[in-house]
Each structure stands twice: as C-alpha cells, then as structure tokens.
C-alpha cells in the first residue's frame, strides 16, 4: 500500500474522453491518446490493499488487483504486467470492454467512488506492449497432443493460448474471414481499435497457435471428421442465436438484427466496404433493446450520420445510486450509467423525445407500420409498469426507417450443423450441456464460453477459456499446471 491515505486525499479521476464533436467524426477510440498515464499512478494509490479484497471475487479471472495497483503506484510497470498477465491473457481487451464488476466489489465503493481498476488495468496492458513486456512465450517442448478450438472469440483465444503455451498443438477454426469473433465483427472500433486484437494474434501465431479462417465446422468440414483428427475439441462458438421480436409488422424491410448491422460497420473500418449497405446515414433509427449491444448500435448510427436515433429500454429508468436494500455491495448494481455512445447521443440531441440521453425507458414495442413498398416507417410503442404491463393511454409513435433489434442471444447457432452432427446434448436454455470438467456428452469434446454458459461478459469468457484449457490439459496428460479460475457452474454474485 504505497499511500495509506490515498483513498482519502485523491478523488477518483477517469480516463478522459475526446470532445464529442471530434470523436463522432471518426472510428478511433473515444479516449484522449496518452492522457491516462499522467493520472494513473495517483489513481492506483487510492487502492486500500484490503485484507479481504472483494474485487477478487467480483472478477471471475481472480485478478490480483491490489498487487498491481501497488506496483503501478510505484511505477514498477514490468512487475505490474507480470501480475496482470498471470490471471488475464488479454487485459488490453478487458480494460476497454469489460463493465468492471471488480469496481462494484471494491471495498472503497461502500461509501466512496471506487478505485479506477479498469483504467489501471488498461494502462498496465498498454505500457506492457509499449515497453516490450509481452514477448511470445512458445513452449519449450511439444506434447504430441493435438487440439481443435472452434471459435476465435475471447473464450477460444484464451483456451488456445493457454494450451499452446502448455506444449500442445492447437488449431483455431473460425467461420469468418478474419480471427476474433465478436471482438472483430461486433465490437465497434470506437470501443476497441482492432490493432489491439491484431497485435495479440501476432503474439499467438509466434507462440505456435494455428488459425484456420473461412471454415465453418459442420458446413465446410463435418464436425465428426474434425473430431476424428484431434485428441480433443473445444467448442467456443459463442451464443449467436439472436432473440426475435414477435410483433405485427416484423416482416417489413428495414428491420434488422443488431448483429446484422454492427459487423458491416466493422467491415467498413477494415476497408472491405466503402459504405455499409445498412448505413444509418440520413435515416430515423430506433434501437430496440437497452443493453450494451444497443449502445454499440447507437454509437455506430451516430457516426454514420443518422437523422435521429432513439434507444428503447423495457426496464424503468435506473436509480442514480445503488439501492442497498435490493442490490447491496458488493453485487453489481443496476444504476444509471452513461456510456460514451449515450453521452454523444445526449449532447447531439439525437432523440428529442427521450427520457435521458437517447433512451426511452419502460418502453415496449407494440407494432411496426410501413409504406406501400413494404418498408418500415413507424414504430408504435407503449409505456409499461415495473411488471411490464402496458399503461393505459401511454402509446406513442416514433419515425423509424431503420430498426435494429438488440434483444440478446439465446444460445449457439445451429445452422451450420455442428451440434446435430456431433449429437450434442443441450440444456433447457438451449446452450450446450456439460459436466463439472467442461465435458459434453460426446467423449473428447468440451464446451466453454457463451455457447455453454449463456450470454455473459468478456471477463467470464476469458475465465472460461482458461478453465477449459486446464480441464483439457489434465485429461490429456493426467495433470495440469494451468490455472482454472472458475468452474462451469460458477455465477456472478447476486442477491437472488
């Protein structure tokens, strides 16, 4: 604990964002380049080095947060990088994309603003790359065992890196034309520039991990044929079966799933397209769904030059502060949060009828109306109470010639045939069933990440990847030194 009074003398200061009028004109990350390092050592001083650090439990990776906070406060960046990478393969991803449940579990957050754990994490990760603290770590010897990882999102990449470093020969199969899963085609570049992903993939290639893109297992290669070629197969295909909105008018053109819309914007940034075929430019956009994916659509539509953008959230407007009776510390509270996209939309007044920023809360879609050509033109909605019951005479109509559905995901996509070809058992939620060792009902086949857990956070995805790697390593060799931060049945801390 470098400064025992730091939490009393230093106020919380977060990574500053670029001016709104500047950042909405490009796809670069929203933060001021280089602005974090001058403030981060003092922010790390705010950590109290608790005897029982609840931030450990709030983070499924078990990050050694007080340790690397102390090292950063002393500006020992190499040691801080070692501590951070001991539990997290990709801190440059989580430091940008994770909603930071660790901060909700910070002991200081009982009665003060939490330590800026997420900002400290990304500062360490960026400094590690800048100073060369993250060289490739190829294994000293090969085990002779071969493993296929299907899916190259954070779960698949974490599993592949751990198993490659343990000496196994690992091939990662990705059905898209580039590696990264939703990190590549789904997360907007203004939240994480793809250079961070490319840099980590180059490290993994140098360590020996092999990547096979444009290969859909079940369609391009039969799943049973792939299984016969490897000693173990890890399914990390994600939960990409999106939820639908079954209301009148859904068949109209101009209504799309968020994950049809967002990848096209990413492809524009990759240089594959000049303009997205679903561009929001000049259109009245309504986003149905109040979560992070909806916010990603919001920021993307603003950058594409939408005439208006409104986001509908079926939940009521959250409280500004934690409700200790309902969501006591250290659980992750449902409070009003202002993402960069919401800040932009609010300042630019993209939704004049919104309750706050660009959002309408307690709003439920009733139906869509279109024109003579069958294209959506209006969205009809109604306000709902806490039990989602319509409130009489609360209906309203929004102009809408592009509607984006961001309603979450129900489980893995079955269209490629992988699940049926292997004969995998599913649980009642539609996700892949597995036992306490991440094994499916098919010998030699393991399941991890959102495909088995259900839609979750990036920290849980990476933790799953590390844990399934330990399980596979143990099954193939009889023992394992790889860490297993979570089990398949572990869940976040909640009051329910």
From TrEMBL:
Classification via Pfam families: Fer4_20 (PF14691), Pyr_redox_2 (PF07992)
Recorded metabolic or biological pathway in which this protein acts: Amino-acid biosynthesis
Keyword Amino-acid biosynthesis: yes
Keyword vocabulary terms for this entry: Amino-acid biosynthesis, Glutamate biosynthesis, Oxidoreductase
InterPro entries reported in the protein's UniProt record: 4Fe4S_Fe-S-bd, DPD_II, FAD/NAD-bd_sf, FAD/NAD-binding_dom, Glut_synth_ssu1, Glutamate_Synthase, Helical_ferredxn
Domain 4Fe-4S ferredoxin-type: 38-69
Top-level taxonomic group: Bacteria
Protein name, as recorded: Glutamate synthase subunit beta
């Amino acid at each position: 604990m470098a400064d025992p009074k730091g939490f009393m003398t230093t106020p919380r200061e977060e990574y500053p964002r670029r001016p709104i009028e500047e950042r909405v004109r490009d796809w670069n990350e929203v933060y001021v380049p280089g602005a974090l390092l001058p403030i981060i050592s003092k922010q790390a001083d705010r950590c109290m080095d608790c005897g029982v650090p609840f931030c450990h439990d709030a983070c499924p990776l078990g990050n050694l947060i007080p340790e690397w906070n102390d090292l950063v406060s002393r500006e020992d960046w190499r040691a801080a990088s070692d501590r951070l990478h001991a539990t997290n393969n990709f801190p440059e991803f989580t430091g940008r994309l994770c909603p930071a449940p660790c901060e909700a579990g910070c002991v200081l957050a009982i009665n003060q603003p939490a330590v800026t754990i997420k900002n400290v994490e990304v500062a360490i990760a960026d400094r590690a790359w800048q100073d060369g603290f993250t060289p490739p770590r190829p294994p000293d010897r090969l085990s002779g065992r071969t493993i296929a990882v299907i899916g190259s999102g954070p779960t698949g990449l974490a599993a592949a890196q751990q198993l490659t470093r343990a000496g196994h020969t690992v091939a990662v199969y990705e059905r898209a034309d580039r590696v990264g899963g939703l990190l590549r085609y789904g997360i907007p570049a203004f939240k994480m520039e793809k250079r961070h992903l490319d840099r980590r993939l180059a490290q993994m290639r140098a360590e020996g991990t092999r990547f096979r893109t444009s290969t859909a297992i079940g369609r391009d290669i039969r799943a049973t044929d792939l299984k016969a070629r490897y000693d173990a197969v890890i399914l990390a295909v994600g939960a990409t079966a999106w939820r639908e909105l079954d209301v009148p008018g859904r068949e109209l053109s101009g209504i799309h799933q968020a994950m049809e819309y967002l990848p096209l914007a990413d492809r524009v940034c990759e240089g594959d397209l000049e303009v997205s075929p679903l561009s929001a430019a000049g259109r009245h956009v309504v986003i149905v769904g109040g979560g992070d994916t909806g916010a990603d659509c919001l920021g993307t539509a603003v950058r594409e030059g939408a005439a208006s953008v409104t986001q509908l959230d079926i939940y009521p407007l959250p409280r500004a502060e934690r409700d200790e009776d309902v969501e006591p510390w250290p659980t992750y509270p449902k409070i009003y949060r202002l993402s960069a996209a919401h800040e932009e939309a609010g300042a630019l007044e993209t939704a004049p009828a919104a309750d706050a920023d660009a959002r309408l809360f307690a709003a439920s879609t009733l139906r869509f109306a279109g024109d003579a050509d069958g294209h959506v033109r209006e969205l009809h909605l109604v306000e709902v109470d806490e039990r989602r019951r319509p409130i009489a005479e609360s209906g309203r109509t929004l102009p809408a010639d592009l509607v984006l559905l961001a309603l979450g995901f129900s489980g893995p996509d079955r269209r490629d045939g992988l699940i049926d070809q292997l004969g995998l058992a599913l649980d009642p939620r539609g996700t892949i069933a597995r036992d306490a060792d991440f094994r499916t009902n098919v010998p030699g086949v393991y399941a991890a990440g959102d495909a088995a857990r259900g839609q979750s956070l990036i920290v849980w995805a990476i933790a799953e990847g590390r844990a399934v790697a330990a399980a596979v390593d143990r099954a193939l060799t009889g023992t394992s030194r790889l860490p297993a931060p979570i089990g398949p049945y572990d869940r976040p801390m909640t009051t329910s």
